[in-house]
């Protein structure tokens, strides 16, 4: 036991005295010490119920002759920080969460860990923290929120703001949407980043089967927490650590499932970050190869009609995963936290996954994947698009260039944008932002003002899982380091081809070189921890982590 460094008698009497003050009894010192990392916060509905879940986990841990120790880490609400300077801290919070879990785990010499995450960066932050500890570990998703009145959610509010500025709805209508769209606890209710990453965590093998598709405020979620607490003893007895479970094949499994379900582009950056942390050789080119020929089979929001709660009511994703294993699309022979393989976990599941939400893979909603990885002279390291197909698959147009998200939003709300315009929002990458903000507000504004099908958006920032339209993000190299996106002028011609997977600025090499020689980099002055991220973050094509080496 690692924890003997703080519990062994008599050498650690002083340590034990501290622990007695927080309620330890004599027999607690001989048990496995299990950290329970709670991302509880009262600043967002995604996380304001998680301490209840943490207590359920503690009950499960303690019931199985281990000792649970609850500690907290931070969260940042993406929904609240979107569209303002607060979003600069969102992706950075992933590193802070992972660092804090690693610090507490190492400092307290815990034997195992169970972490609970809700909002978007909690999940990868928890997973990366567990990877760095490399002890027996389980991840628990806080669960999804239910849709609001008239089947609305957070994205409904963002898009309604564009409708209001375009005078399509009244101030009273906007206020009603604001009041009744988000009710209760849980993470955003579509196939957005939190739900996408929760499904990814189950496919990685580090969450209990079917636990990623549960309502936040449900009996099933409480049972999931208790069962996870019970299970950690088996992992501890067999020394099954997270690095024995997550590998290149399990990450590929996850990215394939997310792609088929039309999930969030943020999953790519997070899974690349997890791979980087574990020193797994994985690139955007690899992910392009694995996902390029997959169809889109789900009718889930943001581009579809259904919420995760609807998917729960049709039985979740267990039947779908069993089907994917049976047709050899994902590898079912990988170890999971149950001690069994993914395939063994599903052996009693009968296959009939098809429903109004998940279509027949041979008769999909779209024959190609919504998520496309593109390369070209505009992004030699690669970028990620999410195209539902309703907007077309090839876009050609003249550029309209902005050096910040705020500039673009002011323009979209106040000006009439011509058809076949490609909006460029740059200096929003990991270093240039700094922080790599999500562009949910401008993408939602374009939908709200009614130009979704005639305008494209390209950025070196990110997109929310709730963004949809003809959007391309994660452009690398970013503008701040002299990427080609920094050389674009107004009315330049750009082509985005999601059939052949390229994105090009239509300028000669001579003209590009000329512009490169006269480039003036926009340097946004920042202080404190943002300055640290600006200096030490790696590019988005490698996960946008802080570089600790």
Automatic annotation (TrEMBL):
Family: Belongs to the IlvD/Edd family.
InterPro entries according to UniProt: DHAD_IlvD/Edd, Dihydro-acid_dehy_C, DiOHA_6PGluconate_deHydtase_CS, ILV_EDD_C, ILV_EDD_N, IlvD/EDD_N
Domain Dihydroxy-acid/6-phosphogluconate dehydratase C-terminal: 356-544
Name of the protein in its database record: Dihydroxy-acid dehydratase
Record has tRNA processing as a keyword: no
Keywords tagged on the record: Iron, Iron-sulfur, Lyase, Metal-binding
One of the GO BP terms on file: branched-chain amino acid biosynthetic process
Keyword field contains Iron: yes
Domain Dihydroxy-acid/6-phosphogluconate dehydratase N-terminal: 33-345
Entry-linked Gene3D superfamilies: IlvD/EDD C-terminal domain-like
UniProt GO molecular function: dihydroxy-acid dehydratase activity; iron-sulfur cluster binding; metal ion binding
């Amino acid at each position: 036991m690692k924890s003997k460094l703080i519990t062994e008698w008599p050498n650690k009497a002083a340590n034990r005295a501290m622990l007695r003050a927080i309620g330890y009894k004599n027999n607690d010192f001989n048990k496995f010490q299990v950290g329970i990392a709670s991302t509880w916060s009262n600043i967002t509905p995604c996380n304001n119920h998680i301490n209840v879940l943490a207590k359920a986990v503690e009950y499960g841990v303690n019931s199985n002759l281990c000792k649970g120790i609850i500690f907290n880490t931070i969260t940042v609400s993406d929904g609240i920080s979107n569209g303002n300077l607060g979003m600069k801290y969102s992706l950075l919070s992933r590193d802070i969460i992972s660092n804090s879990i690693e610090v507490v785990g190492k400092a307290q010499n815990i034997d195992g860990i169970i972490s609970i995450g809700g909002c978007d960066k909690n999940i990868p932050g928890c997973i990366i923290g567990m990877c760095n500890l490399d002890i027996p570990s389980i991840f628990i998703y806080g669960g999804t929120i239910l849709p609001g009145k008239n089947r609305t959610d957070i994205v409904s509010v963002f898009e309604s703001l564009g409708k209001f500025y375009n005078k399509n709805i009244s101030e009273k209508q906007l206020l009603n949407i604001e009041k009744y769209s988000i009710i209760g606890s849980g993470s955003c209710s579509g196939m957005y980043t939190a739900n996408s990453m929760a499904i990814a965590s189950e496919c990685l093998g580090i969450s209990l089967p079917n636990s990623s598709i549960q309502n936040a405020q449900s009996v099933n979620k409480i049972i999931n927490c208790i069962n996870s607490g019970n299970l950690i003893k088996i992992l501890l007895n067999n020394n099954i650590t997270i690095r024995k479970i997550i590998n290149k094949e399990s990450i590929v499994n996850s990215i394939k499932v997310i792609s088929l379900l039309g999930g969030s582009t943020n999953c790519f950056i997070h899974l690349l970050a997890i791979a980087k942390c574990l020193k797994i050789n994985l690139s955007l080119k690899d992910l392009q190869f694995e996902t390029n020929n997959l169809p889109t089979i789900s009718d889930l929001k943001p581009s579809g009609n259904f919420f995760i709660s609807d998917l729960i009511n049709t039985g979740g994703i267990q039947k779908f995963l069993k089907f994917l294993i049976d047709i050899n699309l994902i590898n079912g022979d990988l170890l999971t936290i149950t001690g069994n393989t993914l395939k063994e976990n599903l052996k009693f599941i009968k296959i009939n996954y098809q429903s109004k939400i998940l279509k027949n893979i041979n008769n999909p909603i779209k024959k190609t994947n919504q998520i496309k990885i593109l390369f070209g002279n505009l992004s030699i390291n690669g970028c990620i698009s999410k195209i539902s197909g309703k907007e077309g698959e090839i876009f050609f147009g003249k550029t309209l260039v902005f050096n910040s998200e705020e500039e673009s939003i002011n323009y979209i709300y106040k000006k009439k944008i011509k058809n076949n315009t490609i909006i460029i929002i740059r200096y929003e990458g990991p270093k240039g932002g700094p922080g790599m903000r999500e562009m949910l507000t401008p993408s939602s504004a374009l939908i709200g003002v009614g130009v979704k099908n005639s305008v494209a958006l390209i950025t070196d920032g990110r997109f929310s899982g709730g963004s949809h339209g003809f959007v391309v993000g994660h452009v690398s190299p970013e503008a701040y380091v002299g990427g080609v996106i920094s050389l674009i002028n107004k009315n330049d011609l750009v082509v985005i081809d999601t059939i052949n997977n390229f994105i090009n600025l239509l300028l000669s090499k001579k003209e590009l070189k000329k512009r490169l020689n006269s480039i003036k980099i926009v340097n946004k002055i920042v202080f404190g921890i943002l300055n640290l991220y600006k200096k030490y973050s790696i590019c988005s094509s490698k996960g946008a982590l802080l570089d600790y080496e």
